[in-house]
Amino acid sequence: MIKKYLFVTKPGIVLGNLISAAGGFLLASRGRIHIMELLSTVIGISLIVASGCAFNNCIDRNMDRKMFRTRSRILAQGLMSPRAAILYASLLCMTGIPLLWAATNIRAVAVVLAGFMVYVGIYSLYLKRHSVYGSLIGSLAGAAPPLAGYCAVSNRFDMEALILLSIFILWQMPHCYAIAIFRFQDYTAASIPVLPVKRGIPAAKKHIVGYILAFMAASLMLTFGGYTGYTYLVVVAVLGLSWLVMAWSGYATSDDRLWAKKLLVVSILNIFVLNVMMSIDYTVSATSEMILTSVP
After folding, report:
1. Which residues contact 286 (CB under 8 A, 6 or more apart)?
2. Of 206, 200, 277, 202, nearest to 240 (Cα)?
3. Three-state SS for 261?
4. 194-242 pLDDT tens trace
5. What's the CATH number where 159 sits?
6. How far is CA 115 from CA 19, 137, 149, 202, in A?
7. Total number of domains in the chain
8. Global pTM value
């Protein structure tokens, strides 16, 4: 029973968003960490993300049955009723919102709820099934947790927040396209109009290279903007370049599926290390000092 309620929330996705929310929080904290505020923030965000994932599983249950990767999901197998999933998802959301609000501020709550609405209302209910741009719009939802973590501390949307938002949007696009190429048959069987399916894998490879270049530029802007140190710059640049080289090798590969799988692994490594580095190699400017002294 407990296992069903755990897996209907897609715990892997929740964990990834928890890490990025903590990354945004720690970047804004500049070393002045309030443990209870951090815990309340990541738990509150995680509960709302888990709610969105449960709603998504309910919405996608018929589509999931057509895909090898997803046909073992709880609702796809009929191991939980849609009604129970909706009630559970609603409970998670109604628990997460007041927890996050009590611990942080309205700006952080608004960011998470905006991401929730994009993921459940715009992406899951419509764009995923009807538009080649679904992944791009959906990436706004994936960028919400780190931005909310940042706003939880800073209580403002400034240039640093904009860079953070850009980083996570740009990272998700090649990551999503790599999944779609790796699971090409699944996406074709379920008639999901992702770019590799609608416009072909060669076109997707060009987009992947372009998005990785843009991701590298955005991630380095944290240092050029004076928000992170040079250790962050070197580590993120090396990993970004490795990701780019891997993406470029796709033009010569004879096995698109294997290449996409490797690209997927490198993308996960990139975003994990980026979260760690921006959490520990921050800089404290006069503006940051002003923000921190205004936070109780």
Report:
1. none
2. 277
3. helix
4. 999 999 999 999 999 999 999 999 999 999 999 999 999 999 999 999 9
5. 1.10.357.140
6. 16, 10, 13, 31
7. 1
8. 0.91
